[in-house]
Amino acid sequence: MRTKLLLVLPILAIIILSAYALNIGSIELTLEEMCQVVFSTSTENRQIEIVRLMRVPPIFVGIISGAMFAMSGVLLQAVMKNPLADPSIIGISGGASFGAMLATSLFPGVLIMEPLLALVFGLLGGCLLLFADVISRSIIYPVEIPLDVIMALIGAPFFLYMIKKGGTC
């Protein structure tokens, strides 16, 4: 019973918060109109079409990116065997911070350079740690690196870039 409750409550919260997010803005929708936004393909009502094009994609991106962040966090905690693990352990946060600081210092007027260099240096920070790990394991004690670590190093900066790109376009 408790397991079912732990599965149903987050899903119910996502549905309620998505319905609330659909209704935030200058166009207020009734429950029937919200169902039309989600389930209907009709383009007769212009307000519903505007809501479908302007509000639904950010809701889905938020749900999917939140799920990906949760999954990458769980994988990182499982691989590191540390319930308090975060991206700073594998060098992504430090590299991204250095890249953002470098972009702000070298290109103060170019706004696109900060997220771009943060992405590049976040990737470099994670790859540097991965490279050091491969070298140390192959020289000292040859053990395979789990695929989860490699996927986290590739996936986390990519999703951060996509979220940043989605927020500015």
Question: How would you describe this protein?
Answer:
The chain has seven helices and no strands. It starts with a helix and ends with a helix. The chain is flat and about 65 Å long. With 169 residues, it is mainly alpha-helical.
Keywords:
169 residues; 7 helices; 0% strand
List the helices and strands and how they pair.
Blueprint: H1 2-22, H2 31-39, H3 46-54, H4 56-80, H5 92-106, H6 113-139, H7 147-168
Helix pairs in contact: 2-3, 4-7, 5-6, 6-7
Q: Average pLDDT value? A: 80
Distance between the termini: 44 Å
Fraction in beta strands: under 5%
The helicity comes to: over 70%
Largest sheet, described in full? none
Q: What gyration radius follows from the Cα positions, in whole Å?
A: 21 Å
Name the helix and strand elements from N-terminus to C-terminus, one letter apiece: HHHHHHH
Q: In terms of structural class, how would the helical and strand content be classed?
A: mainly alpha
Shape: flat
Number of helices: 7
Low-confidence stretches: none
- Count of distinct strands: 0
